[in-house]
Each structure stands twice: as structure tokens, then as C-alpha cells.
């Protein structure tokens, strides 16, 4: 596209080529609008592609009520976003791209080939056929005095006058893929109310001993139950697995409770989780197995044969229990069933899978238009919501993109 075309284009501008931005572009193009998508990276959908490397978890098959509950304090707002484009509608949309899906044993929904790339290729092919123009290596810098969009390119700064703008710039996790949070001061300068960005679906620091860190960093703890109670007495409990990292703990079981753990650390300076290393066996049975005569066998061999406590589980027991407790059968059994681990600060935002905070819903009108900036809409992870992994993040990004696209259409119909 030439400089002149950019400067005079009456098209709708989408800033950000992730799922939310591309979905907004599709809604608008389907309505016959001219659409330009601008992305700072050399290609679009980079975080989407990386998220699919280990298996593209697109959404979740659970009933809508528990699905919506995953959005915590923003359940009401996300329910509005998902009303027209929830998990079932998202699956139908994917099937319309020629991508088959299946439901895994956990209830998570995946493309049959488990990959994101074929889905993105099919989608971009459709968008191109609709006339959507995609401009990469175009970084948004804000607005000029006359309201034109400022775009940094390899050829220098360019200006674009758009009939409406959708901002879908992501949060601030994985900045090397484009979501660096650089939009915050640009919107704050316009008076937009923004909740501070914080890590979500993140690991937490633990003060491991050097010996434990060197021996077990990277080791997964499988088939355990994590539970903790926050300052208000609310209890959280879930079975799954997590990973001992060099800095602390991470993985799906930690991410599932990350929001509550982060808030507890913010209030108290720390949070204590408890790990059941032998789920399926009650405390009385574990006490009996621990106290069972072991003859000439070492305690480690005894715990392995009787309770399957070995490797990182055995190491964690020795790391978290005192020598006295470890040699007391009653206290040892209690530790196996409820091993306390004290968590410190969340790991840095750049390491997080996703972001909490962002443009507050209170700063938006219906259709996700900014109250302070008529004709400017926001979508995706830059909005103030969060959710655990499991397909909830992507589903809400897609849905918010659709709502922003429809919001643009509704606004243009009113002002034209």
C-alpha cells in the first residue's frame, strides 16, 4: 500500500493482528467495510501461534455457567461478550474454516491436528478474500493533533486518517511477540481509566535451598492436590500437576489459582499453599503406611513402596519439613497429606502467560467504545479481565473482537 493511500484511506483501522483484532476485521469486512490491520511485528498472530506449539487449546466444553465463573470478578462483563459468541459458536466458526476439533479428556477443545498454524492460515486466506489489508512492521504511536493515527514504519512515520479504530494490542506478557503494553501511556494521556497490568497465569517465587534447586528444578509434580485458604477464609482446591522451577513453582495447577494467590501475596506479602502428595489415601491410611514396620529398608525406600513417594515428591518433603517432623511418623503423614509451601512474589510480567488489568470496562460504552475517545474501540487482552488457561483466554479474545467490530458498525450507523 502506498504512502498516499495510507494517508487518504477512509478505512477502519485495526491496531493489532492477534485473535481479537483479526476477528474485529472479519466482522467489519463481512459488512462491506474497508479494513486495514496494522501490526508492529513482521507477521500477525505471533502469540497465537506460540500458544499453539504445545497443542492449540481453543476453548472448553464445560457448561456455560461454570465456564463464565472462570472470569472471576469480571464474570458479568464477560458474560455480555460471550452471549453472542460463546464456546459453541467459536467451535462452529472454526469448523467453517475447514478445521475439525475434538474434546480432550479434560474437557478442553483442540483442533484435530493440535496446531494453530493451519487455523491461522485458513483465516488469513479468508480475510484476504474479503479485502482486508494487513500491514506488518507498522507500530502505533498514538494520534496526531488532527486525530490521525501515527504509525512507525521502516520508511519512517506515516499518518492514517481512519473512520473508526479498534485497538487490540494485547497486554504486556510475552513482549517479544508484540504485546509489550506500550499503549498504556498513550491511552492514559487521553484520560482513559486503566487498571495496572499484573501477571496472570504466572509462576511464584519460592526460597528453595540450593541443593533442592539444583537437583529438582524442572521436575513435574504429577497427580497432586493443591489447596489453600485466602485471608477471607475462602478455600481453593484442585487436583493436577505443577512444576518446580529454578525460581519457585509454575504450571497448570499454579496457574489455576494464580489470581487468588497473587491477591493474597499483595495483601499479606506471601501465600501458603498445601500439597497433598498422596491423593486417594486419607490421613489415617497414610499414617498407617508410614508407621508400618520397615525392617532394614531406608525410610525413602519405605515411602516409595508404600505410598509412591519418590523423586521430586520425596525431595519436596525433605525441603519443606523439619528433620524432627520428618522423623515423626504422625507429623510426616500430615506433611504428606498437607505439605506447606510458602510462596513469595509472582514471577515478572514478561514471564506470565497472560495479563491482568488493562482498560477498565467502566471506561467503555456499549460496544467496547472508549468514553473518552468516540470512534475508538478496545478488544482482547488489553481489557481489564483475566482467566485461567484452558481455552478461556482465547474464547474471550475472539468474543471481544466480534463485539468491538459490531460496536464500530453500530456507531458508524449512528454518526453517519
Automatic annotation (TrEMBL):
Cofactor: FAD
Domain RsdA/BaiN/AoA(So)-like insert: 198-354
Keyword line: FAD, Flavoprotein
Pfam families: HI0933_like, HI0933_like_1st
Residues spanning the membrane: none
Highest taxon in the source lineage: Bacteria
Domain (RsdA/BaiN/AoA(So)-like Rossmann fold-like): residue spans on this chain: 12-406
UniProt KW Ion transport keyword: no
Stored PANTHER family: BLR3961 PROTEIN, OS12G0638800 PROTEIN
Name of the molecule in the record: NAD(FAD)-utilizing dehydrogenase
Taxonomic source organism: Chitinimonas prasina
Amino acid at each position: 500500500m502506498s504512502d498516499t493511500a495510507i494517508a487518504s484511506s477512509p478505512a477502519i483501522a485495526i491496531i493489532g493482528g492477534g485473535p481479537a483484532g483479526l476477528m474485529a476485521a472479519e466482522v467489519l469486512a463481512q459488512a462491506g467495510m474497508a479494513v486495514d490491520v496494522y501490526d508492529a511485528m513482521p507477521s500477525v498472530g505471533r502469540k497465537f501461534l506460540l500458544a499453539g506449539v504445545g497443542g492449540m487449546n481453543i476453548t472448553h466444553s464445560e457448561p456455560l455457567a461454570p465456564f463464565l465463573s472462570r472470569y472471576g470478578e469480571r464474570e458479568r462483563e464477560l458474560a455480555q461478550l460471550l452471549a453472542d459468541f460463546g464456546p459453541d459458536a467459536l467451535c462452529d466458526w472454526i469448523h467453517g474454516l475447514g478445521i475439525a476439533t475434538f474434546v480432550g479428556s479434560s474437557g478442553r477443545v483442540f483442533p484435530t491436528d493440535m496446531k494453530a498454524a493451519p487455523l491461522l492460515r485458513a483465516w488469513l486466506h479468508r480475510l484476504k478474500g474479503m479485502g482486508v489489508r494487513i500491514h506488518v512492521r507498522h507500530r502505533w504511536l498514538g494520534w496526531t493533533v488532527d486525530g490521525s493515527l501515527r504509525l512507525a514504519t521502516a520508511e519512517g512515520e506515516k499518518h492514517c486518517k481512519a473512520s473508526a479504530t479498534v485497538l487490540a494490542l494485547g497486554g504486556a506478557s510475552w513482549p517479544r511477540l508484540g504485546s509489550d503494553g506500550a499503549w498504556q501511556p498513550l491511552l492514559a494521556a487521553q484520560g482513559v481509566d486503566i487498571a495496572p497490568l499484573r501477571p496472570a497465569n504466572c509462576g511464584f517465587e519460592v526460597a528453595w535451598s540450593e541443593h533442592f534447586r539444583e537437583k529438582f528444578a524442572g521436575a513435574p509434580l504429577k497427580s497432586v492436590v493443591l489447596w489453600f485458604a485466602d485471608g477471607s477464609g475462602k478455600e481453593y482446591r484442585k487436583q493436577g500437576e505443577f512444576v518446580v522451577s529454578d525460581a519457585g513453582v509454575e504450571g497448570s495447577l499454579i496457574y489455576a489459582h494464580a489470581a487468588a494467590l497473587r491477591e493474597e501475596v499483595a495483601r499479606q506479602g506471601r501465600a501458603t499453599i498445601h500439597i497433598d502428595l498422596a491423593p486417594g489415601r486419607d490421613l489415617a491410611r497414610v499414617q498407617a503406611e508410614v508407621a508400618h514396620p520397615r525392617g532394614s529398608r531406608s525410610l525413602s525406600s519405605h515411602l516409595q513402596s508404600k505410598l509412591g513417594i519418590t523423586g521430586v515428591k520425596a525431595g519436596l518433603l525433605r525441603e519443606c519439613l523439619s528433620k524432627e517432623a520428618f522423623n515423626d511418623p504422625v507429623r510426616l503423614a500430615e506433611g504428606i497429606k498437607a505439605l506447606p509451601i510458602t510462596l513469595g512474589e509472582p514471577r515478572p510480567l514478561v514471564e506470565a502467560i497472560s495479563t491482568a488489568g488493562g482498560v477498565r470496562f467502566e471506561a467503555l460504552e456499549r460496544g467496547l467504545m472508549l468514553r473518552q475517545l468516540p470512534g475508538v474501540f478496545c478488544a482482547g487482552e488489553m481489557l481489564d479481565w483475566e482467566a485461567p488457561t484452558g481455552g478461556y483466554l482465547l474464547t474471550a479474545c475472539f468474543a471481544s473482537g466480534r463485539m468491538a467490530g459490531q460496536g464500530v458498525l453500530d456507531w458508524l450507523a449512528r454518526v453517519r
